[in-house]
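Note to self: keep these together.
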Amino acid sequence: MLTSLSIRNVVLIDKLDLDFKSGLSVLTGETGAGKSILLDSLGFVLGSRAESGLIRQGEDKMSVVAVFDVSPDDRELKAVFDEYDLDFPEDELNITRTLGRDGKSRIFVNDRSVSVRVLKEIGRCLVEVHGQFDNQGLLNPAAHRDVLDSFGGCKNELSQVKECWGAYRQASRIVQEAEQNIARAKSEEDDLRHWVAELEKIAPVEDEEEKLSQRRNELMNAEKLIENLNDAYGALTGSVDILGAVRQAQSAMDRANRLVNGRYDDIVGMLEQTLINAGEAVNEIEEVSRNISLNQNELEAIEERLFALRSLARKHQTEINALPRVLETFRARLGSLALGEEGLSGLRKAEEQARLKYIEAANTLSAKRKAAALQLDARVMAELAPLKMDKARFVTLIEKQDEDNWNENGFDSVCFTVSTNPNSPQGPLNKIASGGELSRFMLALKVNLAQSGSVSTMIFDEVDAGIGGATAKAVGERLSRLAREVQVLVVTHSPQVAASGDHHFKVEKSTVDTITTTSVRELNMVERQEEIARMLAGEKISDEARAAAKVLLSA
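Structure:
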């Protein structure tokens, strides 16, 4: 609910602070007094386009602050705050927007800077504005299905449809992917068989490239290896008897060690270990020498295999070590052809079952929508006669869409249609009704939709245009009834509507030293009677007009 509005330097308003209460608040004033400025200011602070032409002449900046009471149970508003990572207010929501001559606008929601996009999302949850030429909300056919679902209490049925739609779409995606995989495998079947045969023939193994490269290196350097090994063997066992010399040194040190009671144990040990290592080295040199091959055929075979492996790796755009996994992948894809059709049949059955569940849930939702539509139509029709539209006809049109247009909201299209005369065809609400008729249709709808709506404040801008007398009184009664459910602000020129208000604000314009200023003040009962008399009589207020105003206020 809107609790206060503070305006600074907007067109004719220099400074204005207004407090609002629940119920029906009416705003009246002579034409040109500036009633539209209030709506423009509220629209500005809720995300309307910022235009520097709104800034009061002689000022550099304008600002509007709106304060709302919010409920922690407002799930739609809370969802917006969660989406944009904003702290949800405990009770009071403060929105501030400024605009400078340079066109720069700043927006704060409870002292947190936000974008215009976020502001519009928040504003949409707080206030609905309905004017004679309104083209949003109920006049937008795209919103009619959601409005009907809210009125009919279809939340559970809609949730079930969304769940079934998600399962159906998932099953359809799985079938589509399986069909694409099988089609791709079939188109590649000849290639796959050739690739598998080719890879199976060469039979690649893990880490084969490294082992082959090492063996190839040994074979290419075999002669040099044997030459070096022979030199090492000869050095250890040739004309200079190194092993014998070590043995002699070991024997001499052993004798010396006994003379000093073992003080040379470390030297004796080192000579003993040297003798052991040298002997083992000789044995190892003999062993590796025997294993070195000079077989040129083996070298050629290794080079041919490396060439073949590298060629296959390039062909399949991978590494040699990955070829075994490539082979397994190709085998699996060939195997999918054998099992694919059988598996696809099962997937198609699951898809059809999901489709049938969706249809069942959508039919249940559709039936509830149709029942709600009949109830809504009857209620709206009951409101039209007192609004002097007894020949008009309101019908909620529900049609099943083609399967291509099914979605998570079911398969219904919903459109509010009207006929203003007995011989006129039904047509969309926003195309058939004239301005005055449209405002009354909207009021009749809103009276019945108030409890199911999400906003807590509704503003009606001259919805009583073109009507008077008993019809205007009926409009006032319905606005008053609507205000029992939500806060209602109405800009009006009708004394009958003004008399229905719980609170009455008068918009006035005054000029001092060529400077024109708009002001707004809340009227007491005496002032209300005088204002309504002015609305009845015009510029010159008669006693009869005052008496008539008193009757209207006491009705």
